[in-house]
Amino acid sequence: MIIKRGAGFMLLRFGDIAFKDYMNFSVGLSLEKFAASVGISESVKMAYPYEKYQTVSSLQSAIAFPSYGEFENSLYAPSTSNVKKMNEIILENMSKDVWKSEEDIATAMDISSDEFDSLWDKTKKCFSIDESSQKFFALCPEKYLYSKKYFAESCTNMMDYLAEYNILDCRILLKSILAHAKGFLDDYQVNVHQSLSLPGIAQESF
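^ thats the sequence. predicted structure below, dont judge the formating
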């Protein structure tokens, strides 16, 4: 095994097989943004409560999907867009009679009544866009609902969910890398897999 490190990249090589960090080619984008940048949008990245489970046994014993609040992550930044997205989802589901009351909203998002009341604007019938709601809705609500639905239909515990969560990341990354490589091959006749990082690709393209 050969390990090469440099400014911003790492390479693991086993014989003729090389493992490269995709961040070498994405100018610091997250997986979701990298996928979007190359036109991959049909795969939804699922949510995971990174700071909730500490052991394998705790994952195996978790047979209920975590509440929205349990996805709190110290790395998440307060987000106005997520509050707006939540209100859009409410409006859409109310118009289709999927949700018929405030209780339905709280149940779907698994938000406690106290949390709901503290964030809900009773006059406007939506969540207030303020500091408290921005902090609470740090996770995209659309992603939470998609993940919760997948868990209910396909998982017996959070260990099952984690397995699919990791595999899904690999699927999204594979699609993104293939689309990314095709773009450079079509436009510049450059095979990105022969380079270690984006600067090398840029130099060859030039």
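The first strand starts at residue 2 and ends at 6.
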